[in-house]
Amino acid sequence: MTSPDSPPLVSPSPCPAPPPSLPSSPVPSSPAPSSSSLPPPPSLPPTGEVMVLALGRKKQRVLIALSILPNLFLAFLLSSDPLITLSSPHHCHLPGPLPSPEVLNASLPWEKGGRPGESGGLSHCKQYLNGSQSAVVDCVAGWDYNVTEGLRNNIVTEWDLVCGQYWLVPVEEVCFILGILTGCLGLGYAADRLGRSKTLLASLTLSVVFGVLVCVAPSPPIFIVMRFCLAAASAGVYLILYITRLELCEPSLRLLVTMLAGLMTVAGELLLLAVALGCQSWRGLLGAGAAPLTLFLSYGIPGVFPESPRWLLLSERSADMNSFTERRNSNRDLRDDESFTELDSEPAPSSRPHLSYPELFHSRNIWKNMCVLGFTSFISHGISHCYSSFRGDVRGTAPSFYWTYLLSVCAGGAAWLLLWATVDRFGRRGILLLAMTMTGLASLILLGLMEYLSETAITVFSVLGLFSSQATASLCILFTAEIMPTVIRGSGVGIVLALGCVGRLSSPLMDLRNHYGYFLHHVVYSSLALLAVLSILLLPESKRKPLPQTLSDGEQYRRPPLGRRRRDNVPLLSTPNPET
């Protein structure tokens, strides 16, 4: 743009200037155009990073904190299954206040151990008929429980889910995991099509409703159905908060924020154990997790927790985006550095990102990355249970519940600290490869040398495998969220989490079979872990890279060929250096 007083611009040319000529008669010239008549310069469309930075630093950090805080209470709903299904030592109920050991030996038959290495003991499900040792019958008057760990009143002790009814406990665990799987798939897809904020509000509402219904369940079948629905809704809240949190961060903050959210979940799991020791009731424990979620329903108030700016950018709102640009240009002087209120506006009811299904089906690179990360998530979640129960499977002496629970929780917290210290320095793919290699090596050492390892060595390698498998599982989810484009990020992360749930199904299925075949189960997972190590080499690197928005952006996240030479970036017409 030129002003009337400035000389006319002359385009540079390699030809010499013409010789001066004699003055001629003046030629009337048209007046220079004014600045008001010139068309405005074209404005570039906003990108995802620009939309995030437009929020302002203060508002961005407030929204990130609001997305981390619910993890403290989601742990009550997603991690309480070991506490409410813990089976305590029990025997048939005998008349009298507290039977002595002599009375127990005279009233209960002796049974051999169920697994190799286990010593026998008094029967849990049989008793002598009328005190005579001639006939053995099932328990007639119920059971007495010797509760020394966990909740004094859980679903096992309240509904007597032991002996002939014990199969309901693994069924409940399987249905709970299937509920998480369903929530990840269904609500992840809904978050991509309907928006993050709407799906989050619906998931929070369902979590509160089913959390109350679970607490008042009168029978095991109703409890299992309500528990399935609660798991689906809670998993949807966790997933939507995860991807929204990442979409609110620039590349330098993504790992730190994800680590803080993971540590908040670890704190919730530790708080869960403390509340369990205090209330001693499974209904109060689940109510303590569902009640605080009602406070987060305030996220539905306009302006409190707005829609993800990256999802808004993809919405089919050409008119809204044009008005967004016009209002930004007209109110540029009214905008401060801390807030940008144009992003607080919710999308139109009919707006949703455009997704081309034929293009998605032909996005081979996206499918390849999703399959590799899903397979890795399946292995890391499935093999984690093998390390927790390995000592009990081999030696027949299972550790206490508190030791197993605290070890698993602390291993998860240490895994997040390790990822925070190394992933941004050495890259996502390198640390994922290292963690999965450590997982496979720990399994091979435990399986190949278990006859020669001491109790201390078994504990050390079990802790190492548990730590590395949890680090692998956590990094898989972060990796997936970073390389999946925004248009399918919810579905992509949901699929990887769902495959992790498929791996977790092996734990209740092994419990249902009383851990028969644990060796073959561990061998299969160890072999698949070595295959996962090779497949990780096919993944790209997402360290300090912007989040992809569209399918075409996601297709560009690929690993370069091994034989590719590095090209020079020197332009064709470059000015040579005279000093050289």
TrEMBL record:
It comes from the Eukaryota. Residues 325-338 have a biased composition (Basic and acidic residues). It holds the Pfam family Sugar_tr. The keyword Hydrolase does not apply. The lineage of its organism: Eukaryota, Metazoa, Chordata, Craniata, Vertebrata. It is a multi-pass membrane protein. Residues 1-31 have a biased composition (Pro residues). One of its GO terms (cellular component) is membrane. Keywords: Membrane, Transmembrane, Transmembrane helix. The chain crosses the membrane at residues 200-219, 225-243, 255-278, 284-305, 402-423, 430-450, 456-479, 486-506, 518-539. Residues 1-43, 324-353, 547-580 are annotated as: Disordered. It is found in: Membrane. Residues 130-544 form the Major facilitator superfamily (MFS) profile domain. This is Major facilitator superfamily (MFS) profile domain-containing protein. The keyword Protein biosynthesis does not apply. Its main location: membrane. GO terms for molecular function: transmembrane transporter activity. It comes from Champsocephalus esox (pike icefish).
